[in-house]
Amino acid sequence: NAGVTQTPKFRVLKTGQSMTLLCAQDMNHEYMYWYRQDPGMGLRLIHYSVGEGTTAKGEVPDGYNVSRLKKQNFLLGLESAAPSQTSVYFCASSKDDRVAGNTIYFGEGSWLTVV
Amino acid sequence: GQNIDQPTEMTATEGAIVQINCTYQTSGFNGLFWYQQHAGEAPTFLSYNVLDGLEEKGRFSSFLSRSKGYSYLLLKELQMKDSASYLCVSMDSNYQLIWGAGTKLIIKP
After folding, report:
1. I need a surface site. Which of A19, A68, A107, B107 has the fewest CB within 10 A?
2. Dist. CA A26–CA A29, nearest whole Å
3. What residues in chain A have their Cβ under 8 A from chain B's Cβ atoms?
């Protein structure tokens, strides 16, 4: 019953540090997504993947990199963290994009603070 | 551009009815969704409309008018546990989800 698991749940970074958020899903989904959620704004898509070995830019990709080496894992990297990247990050997965609206599964979120 | 508009915050009384409105402008349309998000948690799916009209699911109903770019979520017999943010989400012609900022619903006893 794991679904989508993301780690870490909380992290404080200093400006300029790097880190990787890990996302794993056990539903054999092709599509995986990384979103950020900021106060007063909707979820914004950072990067997404339509299958193992593929990645694509979303709405706000700058400052982030991703990798999908295995179908079940989708990693989000911050090479040089900035205070503007303080946010809540959600990983999600879906069987495909056409049914993503009502069958997208979210992880529990990762709270990242950059000081 | 693509845009979702919904009120920032609403207050209602336990046991009452509340309607949360949403207007959307997206490049093409492949469905309108409502999600519930409790503080500190991930969004969870509530409803889906792709054709005009009302969809009812228990205490929650969702309405869609494609010609007006308008939807609403109706919550009946409000309970304290309904205190949450409600996110209006549109799917565009490329099957991308466009998320509204959410309406924070405060339920008072």
Report:
1. A19
2. 8
3. 35, 40-45, 90, 97-98, 100-104, 106-109
B43 Cα distance to chain centroid:
12
Q: Count of A–B CB contacts within 8 Å? A: 51
Q: What residues in B contact A98, CB-CB < 8 Å?
A: 30, 95
List, for residues A45-93, the tens digit of each pLDDT value: 999 999 999 999 999 999 999 999 999 999 999 999 999 999 999 999 9
Mean pLDDT of B79-86: 98
Handedness of CA A49, A19, A87, A23 (dihedral sign): positive
Pairing of strands A110-114, A10-13: parallel
Q: Left if phi > 0, otherwise alpha if psi is -120 to 50, otherwise beta: which for A100?
A: alpha
